[in-house]
Design a protein that fits this description.
The chain is mainly α. The chain has 13 helices and 2 strands; from the N terminus they run H-H-E-E-H-H-H-H-H-H-H-H-H-H-H. The chain has a two-stranded antiparallel ribbon. Helix 1 runs parallel beside helix 7, helix 9 packs antiparallel against helix 10 and helix 11 crosses helix 12. The radius of gyration is 21 Å and the shape is globular. The relative contact order is 0.11.
């Protein structure tokens, strides 16, 4: 279903891109043909694979880049899962492992992959923002670190959706999160406009680390009233309060300061498609709004868990 939505969105804007190409003048030999942030590539310049990946201009090339990056990341996630699951099984021992439910056995490897995604995509996204890639412009820059952050997150979302479909009892919010996350990240790798917003939101993936640590400790029968467990519950709540809960506001505030027209005018331009691809602009507004709400709900749940005896 995620792939269907992605393909439909890409087809919807095909005509719009063709019109834009007709209006553009042909470049003279040696003239710069594409600029992303501070990266400008001249016609005829020899390009490595990485440079080519970040400076492709045709619709077909960008689609292939997004597909290869997502598929490669998904394969890495699957490989880590297949490698880590047997190791956790051995570490738990036959007695503990036999008491696990079918879902928990499946998630032994998934939690390791989710932690890896938190470190990789969250770390790359943090670097993209902290390095100043979007200073003074949050619309057109498309840094390499941001591309890899979105690519790994897209691949992880595809992998994790598969794992969720094999288990049972996942809340509807997780399905919404994965559907919007995959489609949004994939389309951003394709359109490469307004990438600041999804990259900034990807930083929240860091917060899965204390959550996953709690889950693993519970499988080793660590008492939920133990000091380690209680510390992790508090750590998770703090992480959610400092990162997830305010991400929508902090992202908007930064964009407002780095945009001459202000955040309100920028959002209007994104919704109306004025100077910004309509699919990228509207999709970004929809996703940022949805993830702001989801993050606030999860942060509230994390805070409430502090007063509960059972760790969730």
């Amino acid at each position: 279903m995620n792939l269907v939505w992605t393909i439909q969105a890409i087809k919807a804007s095909a005509k719009e891109e063709k019109k834009e190409k007709k209006e553009k003048k042909k470049d003279e030999p040696g003239q710069a043909v594409y600029t992303e942030g501070c990266h400008t590539v001249a016609r005829g310049q020899r390009r490595t694979f990485l440079r080519r990946l970040m400076t492709t201009v045709s619709r077909k090339e960008r689609l292939k880049d997004a597909a290869y990056t997502t598929a490669g990341s998904a394969l890495v996630c699957a490989g880590v899962h297949l490698t880590s699951a047997p190791l956790w099984k051995k570490k738990l021992g036959h007695v503990r492992y036999s008491t696990l439910s079918r879902r928990d056995k499946l998630y032994l490897g998934e939690k390791t992959v989710a932690s890896l995604n938190g470190v990789v995509s969250g770390g790359l996204a943090l670097y993209a923002i902290a390095s100043g890639s979007y200073r003074g412009n949050v619309v057109t820059p498309y840094p390499r670190s941001g591309h890899w952050a979105l690519g790994f997150f897209s691949g992880f979302s595809l992998y994790d959706t598969t794992i969720m479909s094999l288990s049972a009892g996942e809340p509807i919010m997780m399905w919404i999160h994965h559907a919007l996350g995959f489609v949004g990240a994939f389309l951003m790798m394709y359109y490469r406009e307004c990438s600041y917003f999804p990259v900034a939101f990807t930083i929240t993936e860091f917060t899965v680390l204390p959550w996953n640590a709690m889950w693993y400790l519970s499988k080793f029968n660590v008492p939920q009233s133990s000091s380690v467990m209680r510390a992790l519950v508090i750590c998770r709540a703090v992480a959610f309060l400092l990162v997830r809960a305010p991400i929508g506001v902090t992202t908007a505030v930064y964009a407002h300061k780095q945009t001459k027209i202000g955040i309100v005018a920028l959002y209007k331009a994104m919704l109306r498609g004025r100077g910004i691809n309509s699919v990228a602009g509207r999709g970004t507004v929809i996703n940022t709004t949805a993830f702001t709400i989801l993050n606030l709900v999860w942060a509230l749940q994390a805070v409430k868990a502090i007063s509960k005896k059972k760790v969730q």
